[in-house]
Amino acid sequence: DYCEKEFRKCMKQICKAPLAGSKKECKAQAKAFQELTKNLGAGFHRSSQKASCDCVEGDDVPARHREYLKAFLQKYNESQATDELLDEALTKWKGQEAHLYFQLVKRHGKSFVRFDDIEAEFHGDGEL
Description:
66% of the residues lie in helices and 0% in strands. By secondary structure, the protein is mostly helical. The chain has two domains: 1-53, no CATH class; 55-128, no CATH class. Helix 1 packs antiparallel against helix 2 (23-52). 4% of the residues are buried.
């Protein structure tokens, strides 16, 4: 639900000033995209998570989140990789760490998502 909500917000923002066509056409295309992601997104997410993630349980979870967040921030925003800021972010997003990582992609995605023949663009700054 979180990703679908974020996708709807993104499409709404894009359709305020579409790059081509009318706002009405943009909204119709956005609605079609939303139906596709609603129907196919969860399955794709599950399979990609299974293929790329290490499952950690119990007492090891907080340490793994901290380790991942620290490594990410050291690479993409070193000034925020302090113990104080890590603790603050992990406390704020406790139980919703996936949402934190989504916000980090929105903020820093241009640094690691490869775009071929199109300009890298992420809507929204993302928040910590």
